[in-house]
Amino acid sequence: MRKATPSLRDRALACLTRREYSRQELHRKLSVFAGEDDDLDGLLDEFQQRGWISDARYADQMVHARKGKFGSLKVAHELRAQGVAEELVEKAVAEVRDAEPETARALWRKKFGSAPASREEWAKQARYLQGRGFGMETIRSVLRDGAPDDE
User: Fold this and answer.
1) How many CA atoms lie within 13 Å of 16's alpha carbon, on the beta-carbon side?
2) pLDDT (tens digit, 9 = 90+) per residue, 42-98?
3) What is the CATH class of 1-53?
4) Nearest-angstrom CA–CA distance, 148 and 146
5) What is the pLDDT of residues 18-46, one digit of tens each?
6) Given Cys at both, which of 45, 66, 72, 133 links 97, Cβ 3.0 to 4.6 Å?
7) For residue 87, what are the contacts with CB-CB under 8 A and spacing of at least 6?
8) Taking Cα atoms as reference points, which of 90, 74, 56, 45 lies closest to residue 132?
9) How far is CA 35 from CA 8, 24, 43, in A?
């Protein structure tokens, strides 16, 4: 006996039971399964009206998940890549930016723990922090103030 292929609506609901999705991300995920008869945009409009998908909620969830691990530049890039509106991106970035120096310092301490001894070491540590989405101003501050406070 062969299983019936899940409808587009069932697939969308299955995705949304696992985690939040931005509208664009869910559209991209479901478009692979959409047939000519399916109205994917209509389905997503309905889900949005019912409050089942929300870019604001997606942005909040993303900030919560990334706040202690990444800087504002990386969070903003990820949100923009998923089609989140610019005003929601700005709000999320402001929230992450508040804790950015402490986050950068904590990540730096965990990874390196000591001030760079050479230019090459400084560049290595700066690249690490830059890859985590921190701006150069924050990176310079962390590397300049260097040594942990409790030493």
Assistant:
1) 22
2) 999 999 999 999 999 999 999 999 988 999 999 999 999 999 999 999 999 999 998
3) mainly alpha
4) 6
5) 999 999 999 999 999 988 888 999 999 99
6) 72
7) none
8) 74
9) 9, 18, 13
* Contacts with 61 (C-beta within 8 Å, 6 or more apart), sequence order: 19, 20
One-letter identity of residue 147:
A
For residue 27, the 8-state DSSP code is H
117 backbone dihedrals φ, ψ, rounded to 5°: -90, -20
Return d(Cα 131, Cα 36) in angstroms, integer.
Answer: 42
Alpha helices (H) in 32-115, listed in sequence order: 40-50, 55-66, 72-81, 86-98, 100-111
Q: Are 100 and 74 within 8 A, CB to CB?
A: no
- Structure token digits, residue 36: 């000519």
The CATH architecture to which 100-145 belongs is Orthogonal Bundle (1.10)
Length of the chain: 151
d(CA 78, CA 51): 22
Q: Which residue has the tokens 């609506």?
A: 9
Boundaries of every domain in the chain:
1-53, 55-98, 100-145
Nearest CA to 124 among 137, 133, 111? Answer: 111
